[in-house]
Write a structure and sequence with these properties.
The complex is a heterodimer of chains A (about 110) and B (about 120). Chain A has about 110 residues and is mostly beta strands. Chain A has no helices and ten strands. In chain A, the strands form two sheets. In chain A, strands 2, 4, 5, 6, 8, 9 and 10 form a seven-stranded mixed β-sheet that branches. Chain A has a three-stranded antiparallel β-sheet with strand order 1-3-7, with no helix packed on it. The radius of gyration of chain A is 13 Å and the shape is globular. Chain B contains no helices and eleven strands. In chain B, about 40% of the residues are buried. The chains are: A mainly beta (about 110), B mainly beta (about 120). At the A-B interface, β4, β5, β8 and β9 of A face β5 of B.
């Protein structure tokens, strides 16, 4: 089982600042199988990034993803007020088919 | 438009079963896996498994084997998740689609969530 560890658990920043979120895997993850999601209170998760660095449809370019192997990063270049939320990384491994999520990083207003 | 619409909230006793539906519209039902993901109160996301609507094949998270069953009815583009409940299964249950065979794994459309409360 691939365990994803996200850090920090909470990130306190001001609008306009840069956010850097980390996701570390217990074993190597294929780059095309690593995704990031945003979740706001009372809402379903929303796909932000797939295949490590590809933005999903409609996602602003202030969101970017990078990484390889066991270390992945989600960067928000300039925080917009609507970006304060919880972010999860997620990986897929096979065989057998298994998906795991990280524990999440909460980005809160400082 | 593309959407997944889930059935309504449920309250059940431990040991009972719950069956949650997820109706797809706006896309070709058999082109996408449907995953189930749950979220206990105040907690993170937990993957439960998925069903392949093209083949009917399923894969479940190991710890849920024997407790969960995912089925489908292609005539109404609907996937079902049935779970035999324990007290710690109180959660919001989400379905999400993921395109088959494109070399990626991405849950790009999610249902609105179904709250299941387990209480004696």
């Amino acid at each position: 089982e691939v365990v994803l560890t996200q850090s920090p658990a909470t990130l306190s920043l001001s609008p306009g600042e840069r956010a850097t979120l980390s996701c570390r895997a217990s074993q190597s993850v294929r780059s095309n199988l690593l995704a990031w999601y945003q979740q706001k209170p009372g809402q379903a998760p929303r796909l932000l990034i797939y295949a490590t660095s590809s933005r999903a449809t409609g996602i602003p370019d202030r969101f970017s993803g990078s990484g390889a192997g066991t270390d992945f990063t989600l960067t928000i270049s300039r925080l917009d007020p609507e970006d304060f939320a919880v972010y999860y990384c997620q990986q897929y491994s096979n065989p057998p088919p298994r998906i795991s999520f990280g524990g999440g990083t909460r980005v809160e207003i400082k | 438009q593309v959407q997944l619409v889930q059935s309504g909230a449920e309250v059940k006793k431990p040991g009972a079963s719950v069956k949650v539906s997820c109706k797809a519209s706006g896309y070709t039902f058999t082109d996408y896996y449907v995953h189930w993901v749950r979220q206990a109160p105040g907690q993170g996301l937990e993957w439960m498994g998925f069903i392949n609507p093209k083949s009917g094949g399923t894969n479940y998270e190991q710890k849920l084997q024997g407790w969960v069953t995912m089925t489908m009815d292609t005539s109404v583009s609907t996937v079902y998740m049935e779970l035999t409940l324990r007290s710690d299964d109180t959660a919001i249950y989400y379905c999400a689609r993921d395109r088959i065979g494109d070399g990626y794994n991405r849950m790009d459309v999610w249902g609105q969530g179904t709250t299941v409360t387990v209480s004696s």
